[in-house]
Amino acid sequence: MSFATSERTALLVVDMQPDFMPGGALACHEGDAIVAGIDRLLRTRRFRHVAATQDWHPAGHVSFASSHPGTQPFQQIALYGQPQTLWPDHCVQGTPGAALHPGIDWSMADLILRKGSDPHVDSYSGFRENHDRHGARPATGLAGWLRERGVEEVLVCGLARDVCVLWTAQDAVAAGFRAGLLWELSRPVTPAGDEPTRAALAAQGIALVHLDG
User: Fold this and answer.
1) Domain encompassing residue 14
2) Active site residues
3) How many Cβ atoms from other residues are within 10 Å of residue 182's Cβ?
4) pLDDT digits (tens, 9 = 90+) for 28-84
5) How far apart are CA 175 and CA 74, in angstroms?
6) How many domains are there within the chain?
7) What is the pTM for the complete model shown?
């Protein structure tokens, strides 16, 4: 689907951080391949509002395999009654791997939203934390920030396509926004995640978007 942006369209750039690049602590497949494209898109200044998310975990975060003795990264456990993938330690607050990628000019971003800072709750989506011990998904405030600026639709790009980008797009729809995913400007943890991601997007009417021009 092609998409001509409007004053009511916002761009959401998800977790473009060195730890998600090849060689990083939680490398996504070809994660570095989209850096230049996202940088070019921001420099076009075609979006009035740009929000970027930044994974920002304290050491010993509940999502780290190292916090659960006897487990390995990418193993799945039950946490607060919900499935939780355990990850390698990544995007630890204040470390170089947690910084926003220096290959992107972030001056056009009018919101940098740090997520995952609660040591007891994981956070994929830019809109809500994952399930906490009470079964809730606490809001991050992004939906309200967008509404106050008259935004009605969002385009999502970044990393990882099958986790944080997907959850952000899904939660955008749940919050009442129209949503599209810039497929070429996202990458998965592994390519095996692409078909389930396409199916999940289609199930919620989230378009795969190609920008016009």
Assistant:
1) 2-211
2) 15, 115, 164
3) 25
4) 999 999 999 999 999 999 999 999 999 999 999 999 999 999 999 999 999 999 999
5) 29
6) 1
7) 0.95
